[in-house]
Write a structure and sequence with these properties.
The chain is an all-alpha fold. The protein has one helix and no strands. The protein is rod-shaped.
Length: 75
């Protein structure tokens, strides 16, 4: 193999390796970004669930008060 061909082959290998490393880094960054988004969405879902629980608890208290008043009036 001539030196020029060997040099070209080595450069080609280096470029392809660099492309692979770049893709690996991009994939890792994308994965990290998706994980951060999922964590944020999970936190938002947790907050929404807590708010809904509070609303249900408040509605249950109000319904119990109405039931108690209706029982008193019926007696």
């Amino acid at each position: 193999m001539r030196p020029c061909q060997l040099t070209s082959l080595l450069l080609l290998c280096a470029v392809l390796s660099a492309c692979g490393l770049g893709e690996t880094a991009a994939t890792a960054a994308t994965t990290a970004n998706l994980q951060a988004q999922q964590a944020q969405q999970a936190q938002q879902a947790q907050q929404q669930m807590q708010q809904l629980k509070q609303q249900i608890d408040a509605a249950n208290v109000q319904n119990q008060q109405r039931l108690d008043e209706a029982v008193k009036e019926a007696q």
